[in-house]
Amino acid sequence: MRRRAAAWIAIYLLLVLAPQAVLLLGEVPPGREFWWDFSMALGFAGMAMMGVQFALTARLRPLTAPFGIDIIYLFHRYLAWIALALVLVHFGILWLGYEEALGPTIDPREAPWELTAGRAALVLFALAVITSEWRKLLRLEYGLWRYAHVALATLGFAAAVAHILGIGYFTAAPVKRVLWLSVTLVWVLLLVWVRVAKPWEQKRHPWRVVAVRPERNDTWTLALEPDGHAGLKGFSPGQFAWLTLRGSPFGLREHPFSIASAPEDLPRIEFGIKALGDFTGRIGEIRPGEVAYLDAPYGVFSIDRVPDAAGFVGIVGGIGVTPMMSMLRSMAARADRRPVWLFYGNKTWEKVVFREELEALRSRLDLRLVHILEEPPEGWQGETGHVTRELLERHLSPELRPRLHHFLCGPPPMTAAAEKALHELGLPAHRVQTEVFELV
Ligand SMILES: Cc1cc2nc3c(=O)[nH]c(=O)nc-3n(C[C@H](O)[C@H](O)[C@H](O)COP(=O)(O)OP(=O)(O)OC[C@H]3O[C@@H](n4cnc5c(N)ncnc54)[C@H](O)[C@@H]3O)c2cc1C
User: Fold this and answer.
1) Distance in Å, CA 438 to ligand 1 centroid
2) Which first-to-last residue range defines the signal peptide (predicted)?
């Protein structure tokens, strides 16, 4: 896996640097000065990075497998800032040192179209980055933001390609023009694959809702079965799916949820969904027989990825229990007797989702359940408060700890506290894995 990750990073660097290397081959326009050439190089690098951004969110399985999709999205987010900075510096250098290159006016009615295209690309990219980074602050609804993001990125990219080809600097020679057009074509095909081919595949493989069951704490179990096809392939316990209900797979209204059931239960799959917002708040209204679409499975948060572990520790809070449910259900089905500790934080005893099933699973697994309550009922003998180093030390022996794999999933303050505690206990980073329930 590490080798595959390194190979992908090398491919990324190649994709970003290759256009510059090729553009410098053959007939090159006479160099002006260092700063001029530097500005051009930054422009091309920024543009190449923006192009690769499409690939990062295309959910390409071979790419996401070594890192996990959350890491890829994080990468996408930080690289967007770097690409924007490169393009801004490209523009800034020209503005400070070569004002004549920016044309006599910025009025789009009079300015050369290729310069207007460049300025439009800059504004569109900046808007795409700003609305993503500060979406919550700007009170942008998630679904609306996704539509806007796809539109801003696609239009920005088209404007940037037009700018480069229109200016023709470094790309005037026919062979280089062909290169740029081919690179652009690859990016367009990627877009078509993500927005047309993949949703088409989902449309051809619908799922049916077979049960909607209330659980504790405003949570619903939603069960699906494949409708006229074999169902999920290659699903490992703990992975997640993008789910579309009451909508088209061509829309952007899909939501990610961990699959709470085990691969051994296939073709049926179940989700545990907490009613929190616009989409999740309506799960209780869904009726058996309704159609659903899935893009799945994704994710690296799974016991199957660490076959060498002597046992497992789950440190979860609230609805973060769902991927652990999948892993525990799977271990029970496989009669896997490796020891498991589940530290499960909740506000009150009444809010502990799947509490009865977890208790029942103890008879089929070597499972130690440690409930941690913020507001315990009277007479509570168990743990209270939050996950701390001391709490973990009370339950896990120092000899065993390094051989156990730790899965963390829950509210960010909880997972941050658990990560800190495990670090203080000397756990190596590769033995601790965190799943975030928010991708952007
Ligand atoms: C890998 C993963 C696994 C998850 N597993 C579960 C699970 O098993 N059970 C569960 O209840 N929840 C799970 N979630 C969280 C779930 O996806 C969000 O709670 C849900 O999408 C919120 O949608 P909403 O419209 O109801 O809420 P809103 O109030 O509209 O949104 C609340 C917040 O959720 C995020 N969000 C909204 N829509 C999306 C979307 N389409 N994609 C990504 N994030 C979104 C946004 O940050 C938003 O601000 C998981 C999330 C991820 C990333």
Assistant:
1) 6
2) none
Residue ranges and CATH numbers for the domains of the chain are 2-202 (1.20.120), 206-298 (2.40.30.10), 303-435 (3.40.50.80)
Q: Is the pLDDT of residue 440 over 60?
A: no
pLDDT (tens digit per residue) in 381-417: 999 999 999 999 999 988 888 899 999 999 999 999 9
* The predicted structure's pLDDT at residue 187: 79
**Integer angstrom CA distances of residue 403 from 6, 66, 152:** 25, 21, 47
Distance from Cα 239 to the centre of ligand 1, integer Å: 15
Q: Give the binding-site residues of ligand 1, using a 6 Å CB cut-off.
A: 142, 240, 254-258, 271-274, 276-281, 319, 322, 437-439
Return the H-helix or E-strand segment holding 149: helix 142-167
Nearest to 345 by CA among 314, 299, 301: 314
Give me ligand 1 centre to Cα 42, in Å.
Answer: 36
Q: Best mutation site among 257, 322, 408 for ligand 1, i.e. most ligand atoms within 8 A of its Cβ?
A: 257
Give CA separation, 388 vs 47, 155, 166, 423, in Å.
Answer: 46, 48, 60, 11
- With beta carbons less than 8 A apart as the criterion, state whether 186 and 260 touch: no
To the nearest 10°, the Cα dihedral for 270, 271, 272, 273? Answer: -140
CA of 153 to the centre of ligand 1 (A): 23
For ligand 1, what atom is nearest to the CA of residue 439? 53
Res 7 pLDDT > 70: yes
pLDDT level of residue 339 (50, 70, 90 thresholds): very high
Strand 383-384 with 367-373, pairing: parallel
Gap between the Cα atoms of 331 and 56, Å rounded:
33
Confidence band, pLDDT 50/70/90 cuts, at residue 22: low
Candidates 351, 438, 440: which one to mutate for ligand 1, based on the most atoms within 8 Å of Cβ?
438
| pLDDT(326) > 90 | yes
Question: In Å, what is the CA distance from 200 to each residue of 196, 249, 295?
Answer: 6, 8, 11
Looking at ligand 1, which residue's alpha carbon is closest to its atom 7? 257
For the chain, what is the total number of helices (H) and then of strands (E)?
12, 12
